């Protein structure tokens, strides 16, 4: 089929075997190298302990504990990927404007955390916006003058750069009213680069950080669903066989 089939034969075969998400899963994991390093270190440590214990007098007792724990872990992995997959479908249905897990809407709680971050640690929230390439919590929240369902208070508490400007001038400011001298003076006053924060915030006005967080969760839940279930079933099966063979008579 791969040799004589259509041009997209390989893609069709991967889709039929439910393997089309494996390359995407790898690409997703490589975006978070620290996670890969931590998981790899944990697996290496566990493997080293298992290797050293195998064949010793306490080896059977070790496996009687080790195998059931792996079974519990595999069940937890399966539960987690199913929950994330269902959450990804809910996120997609809300146009990435709501994050619901097991029926609980986490969007208001996340908004409170975002507002607290803007007020308590404005510089860090500016850096977060720059790294994630988003502006404010909701889409178009940092537009001045505010439109739609947003108020001036929403702009001030949701947009780090506008929060600094409002504290200095008494109100959020549109680009036409902001000069480099004003931003430089504010930067000297607060001790960090307000100008850079403001310009980065203006670049992504239509892309709120909630959308970015929702898209990340959507990717994780949707892409890792099949690989996660396969790994969980594989680990559970091996652990069940190991538990049966050891009989857990320690």
UniProtKB/TrEMBL annotation:
Q: Which UniProt keywords apply?
A: Membrane, Transmembrane, Transmembrane helix
Instruction: Tell me which domain of life the UniProt entry assigns to the organism this sequence originates from.
Output: Eukaryota
| Chain segments annotated as transmembrane | 32-53, 65-87, 223-245
Protein name (Swiss-Prot/TrEMBL): Tetraspanin
Organism of derivation = Chloropicon laureae
């Amino acid at each position: 089929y791969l040799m004589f089939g259509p041009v997209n034969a390989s893609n069709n075969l991967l889709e039929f075997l439910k393997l089309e998400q494996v390359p995407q899963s790898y690409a997703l994991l490589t975006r978070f190298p620290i996670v890969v390093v931590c998981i790899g270190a944990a697996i290496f440590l566990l493997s080293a302990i298992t290797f050293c214990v195998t064949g010793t007098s306490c080896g059977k007792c070790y496996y009687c504990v080790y195998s059931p724990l792996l079974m519990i872990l595999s069940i937890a992995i399966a539960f987690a990927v199913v929950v994330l997959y269902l959450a990804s479908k809910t996120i997609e249905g809300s146009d990435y404007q709501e994050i619901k897990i097991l029926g609980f809407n986490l969007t208001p709680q996340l908004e409170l955390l975002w507002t607290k971050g803007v007020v308590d640690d404005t510089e860090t929230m500016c850096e977060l916006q720059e790294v994630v390439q988003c502006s404010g919590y909701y889409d178009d929240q940092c537009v001045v003058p505010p439109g739609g369902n947003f108020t001036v208070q929403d702009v001030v508490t949701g947009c780090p750069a506008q929060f600094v400007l409002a504290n200095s001038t008494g109100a959020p400011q549109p680009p036409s009213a902001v000069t480099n001298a004003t931003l430089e003076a504010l930067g000297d006053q607060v001790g960090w680069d307000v100008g850079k924060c403001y310009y980065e915030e203006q670049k992504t006005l239509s892309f709120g950080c909630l959308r970015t967080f929702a898209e990340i969760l959507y990717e994780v839940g949707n892409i890792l669903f099949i690989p996660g279930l396969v790994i969980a079933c594989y680990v559970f099966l091996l652990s069940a066989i190991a538990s049966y063979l050891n009989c857990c008579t320690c």
